[in-house]
Amino acid sequence: MNEFTLTTERLRLRPTIVHDAEFIHALMNMPKWLQYIGDRNIKTLKDAEKYILNTIIPQRERLGYSAYTVIKKADNSKMGTCGLYDREGLEGIDIGFAFLPEYERRGYAFEAGTALIETAAKKFKLNALSGITAKDNVASQKLLKKLGFGFSKTIWFQETELFLFNIVLNERC
Length: 173
Known about the structure:
The protein has helices at residues 21-28, 31-37, 45-63, 108-122, 138-146, and strands at 6-7, 11-15, 67-72, 77-85, 94-99, 128-134, 150-157, 160-168. By secondary structure, it is α+β, with helices and mostly antiparallel strands. The radius of gyration is 15 Å and the shape is globular.
């Protein structure tokens, strides 16, 4: 299994593991997660463990990348998640991110996203990435644009109308 870890000035991004189940449970039940990303039916700690074991880890074993738990170097606190996802029904690899409310609007998502985009190009040799966001998730749209993504089109994904953004990596990295 690929246990590749990224570091930035303030952050460490390490592959999400079963030990993160309590954190993942809390993150996936935040009001903003449920509103903008959707209910993954992670109601218990056991559900979170199963999600990590059945969704996150298999993708990482298959492709070498998946979800990364974002940790603040200064105090080792788990802040959020940032990852590269091969989503069934979506063409290409999707970047996704979510942070606990106390870590929003401090540049952490941009810092983690920038590191992950550079790694996607250089280490994982990906040529492009997509980003999907709810039409009313303006903060996510602004972050994708700041990361260099451009709006592509409106799509229907998992019975939800979303905005699709794209970035060509060889033009950026």
